[in-house]
Design goal:
This protein starts with a helix and ends in a 13-residue tail after the last helix. Strand 1 and strand 2 form a beta hairpin. Helix 1 packs antiparallel against helix 3. The protein is 44% helix and 13% strand. The protein has 87 residues and is an alpha+beta fold. It has one domain: Hotdog Thioesterase (Thiol Ester Dehydrase, Chain A), CATH 3.10.129.10. It has a two-stranded antiparallel ribbon.
Length: 87
């Protein structure tokens, strides 16, 4: 089980790197502390809706990604043999 901050960050980064949608959106990881993860999404035409604001679909994808990454950082490896959240 990974309990140290460096190991937790590595686990989060590994999980995040596997998420193709985050790459497609151009999102990146920001600050990480125990149980909290920041994902940064810069507003650009590719993630906007018709009025130029960030599309709610992109926002909800980022919210889902943040929750998942924060959970990965809190979950003991013993609960999942694949190293990420499993349902």
């Amino acid at each position: 089980m990974i309990n140290d901050a460096v190991g937790i960050e590595r686990r989060i980064r590994t999980s995040f790197a596997k998420q193709g949608l985050m790459r497609t959106l151009g999102a990146r990881l920001g600050n990480m502390i125990s149980g909290q993860v920041e994902i940064v999404l810069i507003s650009k035409p590719g993630v906007s809706q018709q009025h130029g604001c960030v599309h709610a679909g992109a926002i909800s994808a980022i919210a889902d990604g943040v929750a998942g990454c924060a959970a990965v950082g809190m979950m003991p490896m013993a609960h999942c043999s694949c190293g990420s959240l499993c349902f």
